[in-house]
Amino acid sequence: MGFVDVRKKQLFLNPEKITITEDNGEVKELYCFVGQHGYIYQKEEFIEVLEKAMEFYNRPDAEELIEKQNDDQFFWWGMQHAIHYLNCEETNDGKYTFPKPDFKKKKFTQTRNWSVKCNWCGKKVSNTEQEHYFTLNNTELGLSMERACTDVCATHIWNESASNWIFARGYEKYFVMDKGES
């Protein structure tokens, strides 16, 4: 059994408490199941779904399947937020591309002499040596105004931070880990 992608097809079966007064005046609180638009499922519809659900829950590997599905759903839910900050796209096979480097090219000001130290190679560069440096700022990846002397160093910083983020969460199975580096 493969991953069930509930983002694409979802059956809503929400329990709804209803109060019924019997002919003898006795009041009972019962449950029925309603769909996404609030209508109560017909008995035949519900029994068909219940039988299929029982078949699933009676499988010897049901606990393993539940754990995998819940782990996957936890990832997909989290990615709804992170996708905007990680600069990656979903592929045709349901994985995500490795986050594309996202950094800014900054121009040194020429009003005074100043320098930055590259967070990748450690080189100190100043406005007397070159016109630009690069900054990376991505709170999702733990980057807070990192500085780089070149776009190559900036890409290395980004890729290392993105890899650390992915592996620290156990998300490597959800990403195409090709960073596009040669």
Mean pLDDT across every amino acid position: 87
End-to-end distance, in Å?
37 Å
Q: Report the portion of residues in β strands.
A: 15-25%
Q: Quickly give the structural class.
A: alpha+beta
**What would the principal axes of the Cα set say about the shape?**
elongated
Number of helices, counting only DSSP H or I runs of 4 residues or more: 3
Number of domains: 2
**What order do the helices and strands follow?**
EEHHEEEEEEHE
Spans where pLDDT lies below 50 across 5 or more residues: none
Give the C-alpha Rg: 27 Å
User: What share of the residues lie within helices?
Assistant: 25-40%
Annotation, overall tally of beta strands: 9
Give, in spatial order, the strands making up the sheet with the most strands: 4-7-8
The largest pleated sheet is described as:
3 strands, antiparallel
Give a summary of the structure in a few sentences.
The protein has 182 residues and is an alpha+beta fold. The chain contains 3 helices and 9 strands; from the N terminus they run ββααββββββαβ. A 3-stranded antiparallel sheet has the order 4-7-8, covered by helices on one side. Strands 1-2 form a two-stranded antiparallel sheet. A two-stranded parallel ribbon has the order 3-9.
